[in-house]
Amino acid sequence: MKITQQSTENTLTLSLDGELDASSSVVLDTELSKPEILHNHKVLVNCQKLNYISSAGLGVFISHLQRFQDAGVKLVFFNMQEKVHNVFEILGLDSLMTIVPSEADATAI
């Protein structure tokens, strides 16, 4: 799994490339745990190249959701592949998290 970051004024975009499993979720958790991430108004997660997400990967996002909400940071997923989106839907996480089709939609939120 490769995670790349792009920062603009008040928005951080994380692009996930590969499989988010138990081992790579530790790296993602480290990134999301950094205090400076809360200085953003939005954290956008580009899932275009995310091929797989395990329960450990989902757990990382769930564990940071309340922290982000308390800090007023919007967490928005976009460009999600259908098979990854289905995992979010099956677990009901699509109602807890904001998932939009495109980067333009994510930026507009």
UniProtKB/TrEMBL annotation:
<protein>
    <recommendedName>
        <fullName>Anti-sigma factor antagonist</fullName>
    </recommendedName>
</protein>
<feature type="domain" description="STAS">
    <location>
        <begin position="1"/>
        <end position="109"/>
    </location>
</feature>
<dbReference type="GO" id="GO:0043856">
    <property type="term" value="F:anti-sigma factor antagonist activity"/>
</dbReference>
<dbReference type="InterPro" id="IPR036513">
    <property type="entry name" value="STAS_dom_sf"/>
</dbReference>
<comment type="similarity">
    <text>Belongs to the anti-sigma-factor antagonist family.</text>
</comment>
<dbReference type="InterPro" id="IPR003658">
    <property type="entry name" value="Anti-sigma_ant"/>
</dbReference>
<dbReference type="InterPro" id="IPR002645">
    <property type="entry name" value="STAS_dom"/>
</dbReference>
<dbReference type="Pfam" id="PF01740">
    <property type="entry name" value="STAS"/>
</dbReference>
